[in-house]
Design a protein that fits this description.
3% of the residues lie in helices and 36% in strands. It has 302 residues and is mainly β. The radius of gyration is 25 Å and the shape is globular. It starts with 27 loop residues before the first strand and ends in an 18-residue tail after the last strand.
């Protein structure tokens, strides 16, 4: 028989409906100290409490950031804008020389390119050429082009019916092939549509279904669920890297020797590819013979 018993009841109290977390700022862009060569402490890792800029919350959270030429582009769910970084006021003297009157802060203001088109969270469906920036707006079912002004390509080229009658691709993707001046937009089921930038036309549809893209040493690579392809390979090369199904393996090293202080300017990613099944853990290298990738063309778009 026990004369005393420790308290074993655990109290749970619901969070009040009026409680709002102040730790999440999904419309805020924070910036670090400016970096200089030879510094002992990496300024890119130093963020002051007040070094931030907030954009308009009416257009949803920030979903992506991208540097395009000398501009920093930001996307929200229902808008796209420019963040002005270190703005300078320049006037010309009587002799024609430029005079810099002053330099603004790192991020003092932003300007909206559009408050209609944006980008869905976690899609990161954008690519850029030397002349223009491209992205996919899943909410409005539109492929956008931005250079000096905004162009809704789907609407401009009369592709609304083609886009609207198909479901969205499982993993929407946009890539740019600089060798052939093509924008490859795999955004709807049925294969990617191809846009020729210089000709300003949509040319065709591929039956290949890429999920991801990567630019390596100026060469575009596309991957499906189980293969990696070298896009527009030459006749002496093979379409599927390593000839078999490839499974990428990635190792990310931040600091192998933690006891030594370092300044990190560049972080290097390395990886191996190995085949499963009949290949076991056999590794393949980049010297494996390659062949050209063959595609079937559907009826050209009109």
């Amino acid at each position: 028989m026990a004369y005393s018993q420790p308290e074993t009841v655990i109290d749970f109290h619901p969070i009040r409906y009026t409680s709002i977390s102040s730790d999440i700022h999904d419309t805020r862009i924070m910036y670090s100290h400016p970096k200089t060569n030879g510094e002992n402490i990496d300024s890119w890792l130093t963020f002051d409490t007040n070094s931030f800029h907030d954009v308009d919350t009416r257009f949803g959270q920030i979903t992506d950031l991208r540097l395009f030429k000398d501009k920093l582009i930001f996307w929200q769910e229902q808008a796209t804008g420019l963040l002005n970084v270190n703005e300078q006021a320049i006037v010309q003297a009587q002799n024609g020389a430029d005079i810099i009157l002053g330099t603004g802060g790192v991020a003092e203001r932003h300007d909206y390119i559009t408050t209609k088109y944006g980008m869905r969270k976690n899609q990161h469906t954008d690519a850029q050429s030397d002349n223009a920036l491209y992205w996919w707006d899943s909410r409005n079912k539109e492929i956008l082009q931005y250079h000096q002004s905004l162009v809704p390509l789907t609407l401009t080229h009369g592709l609304e019916n083609y886009i609207n009658e198909r479901e969205e691709a499982e993993d929407p993707m946009i890539a740019y092939d600089m060798d052939f001046d093509e924008v490859i937009a795999n955004v709807r089921a049925g294969g990617p549509i191809v846009y020729k930038e210089k000709s300003n036309i949509f040319t065709s549809v591929y039956t290949f279904d890429p999920k991801y893209s990567a630019m390596v040493n100026g060469q575009l690579y596309l991957s499906s669920k189980d293969k990696i392809y070298k896009w527009n390979a030459s006749d002496s090369e093979q379409s599927v890297l390593f000839g078999k199904v490839a499974y990428p393996k990635l190792q990310y090293i931040v600091n192998q020797n933690a006891q030594y202080n370092k300044t990190f300017d560049i972080q290097t990613f390395g990886g191996r590819f190995y085949g499963g099944g009949e290949h076991g853990n056999e590794y393949y290298n980049d010297n494996t013979a390659l062949k050209p990738l063959q595609f079937e063309y559907k009826t050209p778009l009109k």
